[in-house]
Design goal:
about 210 residues; alpha/beta
């Protein structure tokens, strides 16, 4: 019978994490290291959630968010005054967007994820941070949101991607959930095995060959 996996409690987070104790260079060691890297990244991104306040990475009252990603300094504009409108969440950044964006960057840099040449359709792009990062990582990105979100979304894409050496591409499209989408968004059909989401702004990314 295989021995039980060793666990230890990590910092103020208090969660149990795996202890790596495999023969160096083995396949199981590589898999365990990849899993541990992902687990550590999540803990880092959430900044030990038992102590962190909501939206630790962003200030929704400011007019912009500055973030270094993919070798570039990104400046994401926000519209705090729109946040008070019922049903409007995409006018400002949320922690989930920062976490997902940095997770994609880390996964690509680590060789765990390939975005180069992939077609990515993001639903509910909000301010556009995640879509911009995906484009910088080589994906052909379609950022979508409601009609009243287009002005801010297009401004952020233009501001952050127009003057850079872009490995991928970024296109902004209107899309209201429940309406028939433009054919270019759904053809060919996405690979639904690859699905990522940001819970606060309901952003889903589909990766397709």
């Amino acid at each position: 019978m295989a021995s039980e996996e060793a666990k230890t409690r990590m910092g103020g987070y208090g969660g149990m994490v795996s202890v790596l104790d495999e023969e160096e260079g083995s396949e199981s060691s590589a898999a365990a290291a990849a899993a541990a890297a992902a687990e550590t990244l999540i803990l880092w991104c959430t900044q030990q959630p038992t102590y962190s306040q909501h939206n630790a990475f962003v200030s929704q009252s400011s007019l912009s968010l500055h973030l270094d990603s993919c070798g570039h300094s990104l400046s994401i504009l926000q519209s705090p005054s729109s946040l008070g409108t019922p049903g409007v969440t995409g006018s400002v950044m949320w922690d989930s967007g920062v976490v997902l964006g940095k997770f994609l960057e880390h996964s690509v840099d680590s060789g765990l994820l390939l975005l180069q040449g992939k077609k990515v359709v993001e639903l509910g792009s909000g301010c556009g941070l995640v879509g911009c990062i995906a484009a910088l990582l080589g994906a052909q990105v379609f950022l979508t949101d409601l009609p009243d979100r287009m002005k801010l979304l297009k401004k952020n894409v233009e501001t952050n991607l127009k003057q850079v050496d872009l490995r991928g591409s970024a296109t902004v499209n209107e899309l209201t959930w429940g309406d028939d989408p433009d054919p270019e968004l759904i053809q060919p059909l996405p690979d639904y095995d690859n699905l990522h989401s940001q819970e606060e702004i309901f952003s889903y990314i589909f990766l397709d060959e």
